[in-house]
Design brief:
This protein is mostly beta strands. It has one domain: BH3618-like. Helices cover 5% and strands 33% of the residues. The strands form two sheets. Strands 3, 4, 5, 6, 7, 8, 9, 10 and 11 form a nine-stranded antiparallel β-sheet that branches. A hairpin with a 4-residue loop joins strand 9 and strand 10. It is globular.
Length: 139
């Protein structure tokens, strides 16, 4: 087990259980290893904490909790990056932004694809989509 000091206090983690982003996240290409933080409250949101930079953490959610028809299907290159076959499970996640005015938005234009089998994730950019990087929650 290893430990890092974060906004959540001292966090102990198993390096074998890290969430790996082989290419980093958009705007954060050097952040590749994350800890999925346990939920302290019930609800659809959760945190991922960077191991590479303990000052960085992101709030994520399953966007289908708010946008039932939302989907992003990984192509063969994305599945290769995730190291999964077409039959293996892949989840869609979105980065959540909570600005000072508390008007929460989801980044639906650049979802995260997560493969639980390999514990790998990639962030992709959807082309020709109506979704925005700051899509407000439905009323």
């Amino acid at each position: 087990m290893k430990k890092i000091e974060t906004r959540f206090g001292e966090v102990e983690y198993d390096p074998d259980n890290l969430l790996i982003f082989p290419a980093g996240l958009i705007g954060f290409p050097t952040l590749r290893s994350f800890i999925v933080m346990p939920n302290r409250k019930e609800g659809p949101l959760f945190w991922i904490q960077s191991v590479d930079d303990p000052d960085i953490a992101f709030v994520l959610t399953d966007p289908t909790n708010f946008f039932v028809d939302y989907q992003a299907i990984p192509d063969s290159a994305e599945r290769n990056s995730l190291q999964i076959s077409p039959e293996e499970e892949c989840f869609i996640l979105s980065v959540v932004t909570v600005p000072p005015d508390q008007k929460i938005t989801l980044n639906l234009a650049a979802p995260i694809l997560f493969a639980p089998k390999t514990n790998r994730a990639i962030q992709i950019i959807l082309e020709n989509t109506e979704y925005q990087s700051r899509t407000p929650l439905p009323a």
